[in-house]
Amino acid sequence: MRKRLENTNKYRISYIYGRGNHKSFGPGRVIIREGHVPQNFYLILSGTALVTKTSINRQTGEPFVRTAAFLKKGKTFGDVAILNGARRNATVLCHNTVSLLSVPRQDFINTFMSHFITFLRKIEVLSGWPVENLPDNKPGICIHTFFRRNTVISRDTKASSKIYIIKTGTIRVLKTLTSTKPHLPGKHSSISGDWKYQNTDNQSEEMHAKKAVRIKTSLPSRKSSRDVEFLLPLLQQGPAALEERADTPSPYTSSATVPKEASSTIHVEEHGSQIYIHVQMLKPGDVFGLVYLLFEDTFGMTLISEGAECILISKDFFKKYTDDAYLCKLSKVVQPYPSEQALQKQLQEYINWSAYKSLLFNRQQKLCAISK
């Protein structure tokens, strides 16, 4: 909520102040109580408030109250339950004398609903879809919320009931692939002049190959954007580029030359027995989920927040107000993702090249040690 308020323009601030009520409470006074239905949004003008939550002792099973945060001048609270249509998830009480601005629930909804409707109208890919039909009090249809960094927003976007629109921040898009071992060239044949390729399972240097492809991070984790988008250039070029890429022979199947470096820089993560490949980085103004309206065979992906404010719209509601003219427009601007087989192939090439570089480095170290 703090980010939303920081981004609020002067008109909206004056709108909130014009419809808010100034209140002052003494020490120990409860402002909102955990489990209650939300009625107001609050902005602290002076003083300090204490946020407490009820937790369960894992050993005894008994409930206890813990202090979650202190809120001082300029801090806000009460928006999450209103926007999500939920009950209060914490109690807020006065630590000392607190002066605050209380904004009625419906006025708060009207203010921020009008703001993100304006935002949606500026998104080109949504032009032609009636954003004005979005309800302002049905969280099952439309939610305006913030996902903290490293939050798993969706583990399977194909099964998800939402379309995701990024307002601020970024979101990583990952795809689960099958874990695989590197396939490396064996000894060079002096008779045929060919390289013999084999799996590293039976190689004496298997350990070094495994080290080269072992991923040290877990899901979710923070990654820099420069490590991420190996697929974005292909997505921007369209289906022809994807088909051409899928048909390009792997540098590891050539029998005449030593393997060449993989032509794309990719980034992968491993979590338990699962391996993930970075597909895309979503930025402000991006809409994720429209691809499922056009290409039903698109695989599901995992969304990880890098700290993102999002608008979530029900897929069923979106489809209800999608006509043929809008679908025709989408077909011209929304590109399909590569097939799962193409992604698996890219992963294999990446693992092969990483392992091959590791083996070369290890052999060079051995030669240096011998020469000394």
UniProtKB/TrEMBL annotation:
InterPro entries in alphabetical order: cNMP-bd_dom, cNMP-bd_dom_sf, RmlC-like_jellyroll
Pfam families on file: cNMP_binding
Sequence ranges assigned to domain Cyclic nucleotide-binding in this UniProt record: 4-108
Stored Gene3D superfamilies: Jelly Rolls
Coiled-coil boundaries: none
Comp. bias (Polar residues): 250-264
Span list, region Disordered: 242-264
CDD domains in the record: CAP_ED (cd00038)
Stated name of the protein: Cyclic nucleotide-binding domain-containing protein 2-like
Organism: Huso huso (Beluga)
